[in-house]
UniProtKB/TrEMBL annotation:
GO terms for biological process: protein transport; small GTPase-mediated signal transduction; vesicle-mediated transport. The keyword Cytoplasm applies. GO terms for cellular component: Golgi apparatus. SUPFAM superfamilies: FAD/NAD(P)-binding domain. This is Rab GDP dissociation inhibitor. Regulates the GDP/GTP exchange reaction of most Rab proteins by inhibiting the dissociation of GDP from them, and the subsequent binding of GTP to them. Promotes the dissociation of GDP-bound Rab proteins from the membrane and inhibits their activation. Promotes the dissociation of RAB1A, RAB3A, RAB5A and RAB10 from membranes. Regulates the GDP/GTP exchange reaction of most RAB proteins by inhibiting the dissociation of GDP from them, and the subsequent binding of GTP. InterPro entries: FAD/NAD-bd_sf, GDP_dissociation_inhibitor, RabGDI.
């Protein structure tokens, strides 16, 4: 009979991060996955032929002969240079297994056109998103967030920031609707309008994090690993293995054995593995999760950069919901051969959003039009699943499905929340250092 502190089912990004963190904490960890590859829902598909097979699309065309040069993320996301994920990577030293490259641009959609997101005073000065007076007011807001210190009331401009809503904060700086839109959605990365009536501290923190991330790398605040996101679960799996974690890939999970409402063991191919705690993604426990919505993702293969992005080989584009009379934003992420995820001169652009109607593909049409001409599209619609309970009683801790955003901030919130429920402790980091990246980006 084999006993473990923690059993992890599935090698998705979040499961691998938690597996690495638990191993780092001295726990005896067993990691089981029914697939022969890492990543689960957030896997990267390679070679390219596999992507066509997965989506049952005939191809690829003869012109795309070097299929092994492709690594296509099913759930593409970037990370902010000073964001949560970078702190986790630095804390665990998983950075030694990864190489990063800066994403070349950050854009926002307005009136049918793509514009650079202004996040510095210089950008504001040259931005075509604002008139002269708005530029001045926006610079004042940037100046305020950068100099803000919670402990120093002199930096609060006579506002009680625990009570002031974001709407009132924006009103204090007399910002116009255009400025509020790109600030809230493309800089503070809020995915709906509800933030406007919540305390403004969170928005100040997010604007500041975006600005600080941008100041690290100039082009944009985002980073992305060479060879795609599959490097992330693999890096954390290596960390777990280094600290004694055991991995069983390509293994069926037959049953989760319970006793008095609490997890006791996992039965896999006739063998019983005992554990005190279980971590898994929703697919392993369909009776313990509920559907909160649907996500549409459209992976597009292109042989050209996206128009109006300054020929960027990688970029992020956000379409704020108000631009299309929606309740959720649409996200576009673009990566290419420059990140070693596609053949020379080729691009992978992925459109994602929360589906709001019974015809999700129609909803993303304006985003797809920005990418034309598209060589090939791969459409997926998946359920957004969340756990029914916090896991403290059953000791089964279930991650949420990946959301439609194309950055990792909300997924890291889920990791921190799971970690807190698993251990009773907050996930704390030492001082975050800078992630090194290729010198050709400076």
């Amino acid at each position: 009979m084999q006993e473990y502190d923690v059993i992890v089912l599935g090698t998705g990004f979040k499961e691998c991060v938690l597996s690495g963190l638990m191993s780092l904490n001295g726990k005896k960890v067993l990691h089981i996955d029914r697939n022969s590859y890492y990543g689960e829902e957030s896997a990267s598909i390679s070679p390219l032929q596999e992507l066509y097979r997965k989506f049952k699309v005939p191809g690829p065309p003869k012109s795309v002969s070097r299929g092994k040069e492709w690594n296509v993320d099913l759930v593409p996301k970037f990370f902010l240079a000073t964001g949560q994920l970078v702190k986790i990577l630095m804390h665990t030293e998983v950075t030694r297994y990864l190489d990063f490259k800066v994403v070349e641009g950050s854009y926002v959609y307005k009136s049918g056109k793509v514009h650079k997101v202004p996040a510095t005073e210089e950008d504001a000065h040259s931005s075509d998103l604002m008139g002269m007076f708005d530029k001045r007011r926006f610079k004042k807001l940037l100046h305020f967030t950068q100099n803000f210190d919670k402990r120093n009331p002199r930096t609060h401009q006579d506002m009680d920031l625990d009570k002031t809503t974001t709407r009132e904060l924006f009103s204090h700086f007399d910002l116009g609707q255009n400025v509020i839109e790109f600030t809230g959605h493309a800089i503070a990365l809020h995915s709906s309008e509800s933030y406007l009536d919540q305390p403004c501290m969170e928005t100040i923190r997010r604007i500041r994090m975006y600005s600080e991330s941008l100041s690290r790398h100039n082009y944009s605040p985002y980073l992305y690993p060479l060879y795609g996101l599959r490097e992330l679960p693999q890096g954390f799996a290596r960390l777990s293995a280094e600290y004694g974690g055991t991995f069983l890939l390509n293994r069926a999970v037959d049953e989760i054995v319970m006793e008095n409402g609490s997890v006791k063991a996992v039965r896999s191919e006739g063998k019983l593995f005992h554990c005190k705690q279980l971590i898994c993604d929703p697919s392993y426990v369909p009776n313990r999760v509920r559907k909160m919505g649907r996500i549409i993702r459209v992976i597009c293969l292109l042989n050209h950069p996206v128009k109006n992005t300054n020929e960027a080989s990688s970029c992020q584009i956000i379409i704020p919901q108000t631009q299309l009379n929606r309740t959720s934003d649409i996200y576009i992420s673009v990566v290419s051969y420059s990140h070693s995820v596609a053949s020379d001169g080729m691009y992978i652009a992925t459109v994602s959003t929360a589906a709001e109607t019974s015809t999700p593909e129609k909803e993303v049409q304006p985003a797809l039009e920005l990418l034309e001409p598209i060589m090939q599209k791969f459409v997926s619609i998946s359920n957004l699943l969340v756990p029914n309970e916090d896991g403290r009683k059953s000791q089964i801790f279930v991650s949420r499905s990946y959301d439609a955003t194309n950055h990792f901030e909300f997924e890291c919130d889920d990791i921190e929340d799971l970690y807190h429920r698993l251990t009773g402790a907050e996930l704390c980091f030492g001082r975050s250092r800078q992630v090194s990246h290729n010198s050709d980006d400076d």
